[in-house]
Structures are given as structure tokens and as C-alpha cells.
Amino acid sequence: MDSKNLDITKSSGEKVKFSLTKLRSSLKRSGADQNLINSIIDTVRDELYQGISTKEIYNRAYALLKKQKHIYASKYKLKKAIYELGPTGFPFEKFVASILYYSGYEVEVNKIVQGRCVSHEVDVIARKNESFIVVECKFHSEEGRNCDVKVPLYINSRYQDLLSVSKMEGNKTIIPNECWVVTNTRFTKDAMQYATCIGLHIISWDYPLDNGIKDRIDRLGLYPITVSTLLSNREKQFLLSRDIVLCKELLEDKFYLDHLGISENRQKNILEEIKLLCNTTELCQN
């Protein structure tokens, strides 16, 4: 079947044309070499059928990558790994705070801030030089649930309430000068249009171009612990409950693997996988 004329089904149920370019791009992000990418594309293309789901395509490509090298599969499953930070949104908030921290910001998580009318729980507060940013995180544990215009409308109303109150820090008046909304999915067209109009800074999985969540993760090497292909779901949830959200944090607190009763040999394999994930930057040190 000609892949150019093939309709595939997204998680939302929407039908779209299959894109060989998108598949190639996602495989390239895994770190796989060109020969392996071409081989996987040939295999997947031969198995396509009209109406196939994006999940099936992902699962097949993931399995083929995993057969070759675990590190490729780990990077390829990044988007799914972010969903696995749930079901609550707190690990995602901590994850967003970590991205900002390793981008040079001072950060605080889950702070109560008094507005003019009411107090507000702010997911992340970030400061660097003259920037004082309040960040609201919108986490979805299921694919296909995008943020519509009601999200920036609501968050902007809270932000305006915070702007109405002057705060003193020493002899200096401090008020936020930026508001960010970060989601692990996407924003609808109306949400993006509204945010742009009023000056809200929005970040989604792939927006802004080259500076979305996936780009920042790759650039900083801040992979969530859920990308591991060697840890079980139970083990990942245990680590998340101990505030181990990043791979680099497990390298710093290896003793949790003992708490989980993981054998020495398996620990070695897990830590090798995680070191490889962090190897693109100097952020993760043994």
C-alpha cells in the first residue's frame, strides 16, 4: 500500500495522513543510526494498513528499537514516559521545575502566593536575573487530551490577581513579570491564539518550535525515570513516591534500588542504561 495515501488514527480518534517524515524524525531522536532507521521504516511501512492506530505504529517501532539497543528505545518512548509520571500532576510539576533549575533558574514548587482577592497555589516559581515567573502545569495522563482556551483564560485570571499585589523583598518591590503555562500534551488553536494575544508564555510537547518540552529534555539530558526500559512499573512508582523523578536523581540516590530488593546484576544494568541516557550532557555524574 502507498503510505502517502494511508490514513492513520490518532489517540483522539482523529484521522490523519501517515507521515514518513514524522516517523523518521522520531526515530532519529532516539539516537539510532541511519541504517537502523531505514530498516525500521521499511519494516513498519510494509506492515501498515488503512486506519492503523498511531499506538500500533509506535509499539512496533519501539519493539524494533529495543531489540537493537535499550537506550534507543528509552529515548524513543520519551513522550509516553511523561504520561507515566501520573496519575497525579505533582511529579510533572517537579519535572518542569527541574528543567527550569538546570536552565539557570532558582525554583520553588507548590507555593501559596497571596493575590489581591484570594491566595493561589502556584505550581512553580522561577527566578533568574530580572525574570520572576509563575508557572502553571497542566498534566494529562492520557493521550488526546489537549488544553483548550479555558485553560489560559483561567490561568490568566489568577495571574492578574497576583499582579494586583505589590510584594516587598528587602527594599525592593517584587511582582511576577511572566506567566507560563506548561502541558505535556498540546494546546488547541484557540488556546494558542488567546495566549499569544494576552502575552502568556505557553509550552507544550512540541511548542514553541525547537523549544518545547521534548527539545528541552534532549538539550539538557533531563530524562524522567519513567523512560527506563529495565525498571518495572511498580519500581518506577516506588521511585516517584520517593521524589525520584529524573534519571540523574537515581544516580545520586542509588540506595533506593537496594530498598526495592533489586539484585546486584540487575542494578548494574539499570544504572548503565541511565548513565547512557545522561551521557549527552555533564548534568548526570556518577
Outline the structure in words:
With 286 residues, the chain is an alpha/beta fold. It has 3 domains: 3-73, no CATH class; 90-219, Trna Endonuclease, Chain: A, domain 1, CATH 3.40.1350; 221-278. Helix content is 46%, strand content 17%. It has 13 helices and 9 strands. β1 and β2 form a beta hairpin. It is globular. The model has no long low-confidence stretch (mean pLDDT 90).
Task: Report a brief summary of the structure.
With 286 residues, the chain is an alpha/beta fold. It is 46% helix and 17% strand.
In angstroms, what is the radius of gyration? Answer: 21 Å
> What string, H for helix and E for strand, traces the elements in order?
EEHHHHHHEEEHEEEHEHHHHH
Span between N and C termini? Answer: 49 Å
Q: And the CATH topology of the largest domain?
A: Trna Endonuclease, Chain: A, domain 1
Counted beta strands: 9
User: Mean pLDDT, nearest integer?
Assistant: 90
CATH class of the largest domain: Alpha Beta
Query: What number of domains?
Result: 3
Q: Main β-sheet: number of strands, strand sense, barrel status?
A: 5 strands, mixed
- Overall shape: it is globular
- Strand residues, percent: 15-25%
Count of separate DSSP helical elements:
13
Named at the architecture level, the CATH assignment of the largest domain is 3-Layer(aba) Sandwich
Give start-end ranges of low-pLDDT stretches: none
Record the strand order, biggest sheet. 3-4-5-8-9
How would you classify the helix and strand content by structural class?
alpha/beta
Helical content (DSSP H or I, runs of 4+): 40-55%
